[in-house]
Amino acid sequence: MNLTPFSIALIGVLGLLGVGLYGLMISRNLIKIVVALQILVKAALLGLVAAGSISNQINLGQSLAITVLVADTVVAVIGMALAVQIRRQLGSMDVKELSSLRG
Amino acid sequence: MAIWAALLTIGLPWLGGLCVWMVGDKRPRLQHTLASGFAVVGGLFSLTLLRFVGAKTILSVPMGAAFGDFTLVADGLGVYLALIAAIVGGLAVIFSNDYMKGEAQLGRYYALTFLFVGAMIGLVLSGSLLLMFIFWEITAFCSYALISFHNDDPKAVAGGIKALIMTQLGGIGLLAGAITSYVYLNSYQIDAFLSRAEALPPSVLSLVAFGFLLAAMAKSAQVPFQTWLPDAMEAPTPISALIHAATMVNAGVYLLARFFPAFEAVPGWRLAVITVGLISALFAALMAVVNNDLKRVLAYSTISQLGYMVYAIGAGAILASQFHLLSHSLFKALLFLGAGAVIHTVGTRDMLEMGGLGRRMPFVRAVFVVGALALAGLPITNGFFSKELILEGGLAHGPLWAYLGMILGAMITGLYTIRMVTLVFYGDSRLFKAEHDAPGAMRLSLFVLALGTLTTWLLVGPFSRILAESLPFHHLHAEGTLMVLVEVISAPATWIAVALILGGMLAWLNRARFGSLIGKLGTFSDFLQSGMGFEWLNRQIIRVTQSTTASLRRTQTGLLGWNVVGIIAGLIVVLVLVAIGI
Amino acid sequence: MPLLLLVIVTILFAFQSIRVSRLMISALWLAGASALLSLVFYIMGAYTIAVIELSVGAGLVTVLFVFAITIAGEEPGELRSLIPRPLAVAIAILPLVVLGWYALPLTLAHLPVPETSLANILWQQRALDVFVQVVLIFSGVLGLLGVLEEAKAPLKYPAVDEFAAKRERELQALHQQSIEKESI
Q: Are B127 and B189 in contact (CB under 8 A)?
């Protein structure tokens, strides 16, 4: 398999995707979960830019990536605000302790 | 222009609901006024739809290949039901001004009511099966939310859930029909389905026909799906008048009427429809005779009258069934709102605790008697003409045994109607509370509905003309008003039916003479009161459903990690399917 | 070759940020991954997005993380994962295998599409996207204000009270333990 830049970028997308999903499953701390979400979005950005570069429409890829980045930043802001408030009100950021939706 | 008429007829109630909700519950008087304003404007505006009645599509929004086009068609069948929804909805909202005075959470109440009215109008105006299904689901949700409006009352919540489960199970039949239409005919449009129904293989067509019949039976509370409607009487009475008498339960009859040309050739379908109508009419009428709760009697009478309409469709008398639908919406809403006025004053729904209310509430008694005459099918009211049209249509095109059953049903209808009226308004006063007559807003709604009940039979000519001209697939014959009236009055079957109804009424009034006979019927009436075994069956169904869900709850660990595992597992399944190339 | 190296190191940095137990160090590894990723973007020719990713990912988001971690405080101790690690690894790798097997052999030809400037695309062709971004930011601000309002006058849920009571008891128990340890 020849290693074109596109294939290398795809490897990057898959790798970041895997790391992000693993982090989402493993983490118990709310802030760590936001970190995992950020990694997943980086995978998406890399995928968009790679698709743009391979189809010679790099600017379309960039503009879509800007939209995704804005959305992701808003998610990170609200996620962290929620995490901080939960820590203040309930005293813990551990997912297991906060879970009251059991069964 | 037609686009605006249709969109605003749907959109004005929705806008009204949003405005009333946003005003907030701290200003109830403003909420009442705003709601009444939107109700009046919406009701009057819907009359503009009459100008644009026709068979062609008004609005077509392409939604991509998978969903087809969302279209609105303003043909006669849809327009008159839209008018009923808007006008009766408006009257129910005006009635709620007085009925819900002092209640909490008015924003939720009015918002849901207006959402329902808009969705009902959208349902009947829709020309795409998928769009109709979406509106069908919205009306089912609003019905559930409004039945359980007093959500601190466990009976209300149980009634709402029961209604939701049963009508949604029927909705599956509708969705299956829509998807079948798309798979075979490549279109969700109702016109395409009606014109090319022969292109479907016969077994598939029968499947769709009976699926739609099931959906209609569940929505219109026909046997064996009828148990949700009496339990839905926990809703506030204006809601019972609007949803469970005048609009939502009509959706099932509307479905059958609209798709009749496609299904009439399916073997056994018409007979099944006639049988369902007959059984529902008789069964519900019997249940109404032994019940003591005023609203439950009206609920059973709704089921019974819907059975008449379903029977008429099965016999092929589409015009008669739709005309009875129009009359029934008006007089049943009138009866429910009258009952609401009584319940609001007296504070109980039990008829055995009422009596002699006619002296203190003469206005309500007068309008209630008008509605009762229409229900029984006695002259001058619209119920007389529409019921006689149904019976004639059934005699001409349907089997004789069904006709005899329906005549018997008419007699029992007369019986329970007079029982209801005498128990509530005549006789000795069993209550010693000070009662007052209905307040102003209630009187307005009741008066308009009573006026409609007494006069809409004059519209049968234009009504049949509008329907015949705008429904090209149904092959209806329009007739002038005078011809129809002469036909009804001169048919001997009419007077036989009237005689039987009067006979039923006299039987009740002289019931002392039948004392021994009634004593022997004691155990039978206990059996009737327990719902002829249907209640037990439904309890079992609900018990099984809830125990299954309880055992499935163990998969909800509540831990984020396991939820993510679930999501990724789903993703893997989808990826594998895509990679394999399905 | 340099591209491949950069990509692999980016993935390693991201993995480190998940593995490390201290939150502050984790945020720093994430900032590093952002910086490397922006280099990758630059090498691929997407100059604007490289700059934006560097300033937002390695700048804005990292500063937010530092603020949040400082205010919220670090929890002591490493928390064990609730899902067995081998299962998590397997589930995380499976979609990658399927995707990779399907997508990596793709050799897409360069499509001859006329090149337009970024400004043209952003403001004219994808104007709806810009509108959506504005709505997103607006709703994000509203959401943030809502969360802060909630903090000032929190709604009373029984679950919250039970939780707070349980927390109190645990803190008391810890306090008792530390007292007993001291007295020994």
A: yes
* Percent of residues in chain B assigned helix, strand, coil, to nearest 5: 80, 5, 20
What's the token pair of residue B269? 């379908």
pLDDT digits (tens, 9 = 90+) for B12-21: 999 999 898 8
How far apart are the C-alpha atoms of B476 and B316, rounded to whole Å?
Answer: 10
The interface predicted TM-score of the complex, written ipTM, equals 0.91
Strand partners, B61: B70
Q: Report CA-CA distances (Å) from C114 to A49, A53, A62, C42.
A: 17, 13, 16, 21
Among C10, C15, C53, select the one facing A12 at the smallest CB separation: C10
List of chain A residues whose C-beta atoms are within 8 Å of the C-beta of residue C128: none
Put simply, the chain C residues between 79 and 98 with a CB less than 8 A from any chain B CB are 81-83, 87-88, 91-92, 94-95, 98
Q: Name the phi and psi angles at B201, rounded to 5.
A: -60, 145
**Is the CB of residue A89 less than 8 Å away from at least one CB of chain B?**
no
CB within 8 A of A2, min separation 6: which ones?
none
B72 membership: H or E segment, kind and range: strand B69-73
Verify whether the Cβ–Cβ distance C91 to B569 is below 8 Å.
Answer: yes
pTM: 0.72
* C58: Cβ contacts below 8 Å, ≥ 6 apart: C31, C32, C34, C35, C38
pLDDT tens digit sequence for B179-220: 888 888 888 888 888 888 788 888 888 888 988 998 999 888
Q: Which of C82, C91, C99 has its CB closest to that of B568?
A: C91
Kindly tell me the burial class for residue B322, based on how many C-beta atoms sit within 10 Å of its own C-beta (0-12, 13-18, 19 or more). buried
Phi, psi of B97 (to 5 degrees): -55, -45
Nearest-by-CA chain B residue for C82: B561
Phi, psi of B72 (to 5 degrees): -120, 130
C3, C44, C162: best to mutate for the A interface, most A CBs within 10 A? C44
Contacts of C88 in chain B (CB under 8 A): 561, 565
Give percent of chain B with pLDDT exceeding 70. 95
Displacement of CA B65 from its chain's centroid (Å): 33
CA–CA separation, B129 vs B41, rounded Å?
29
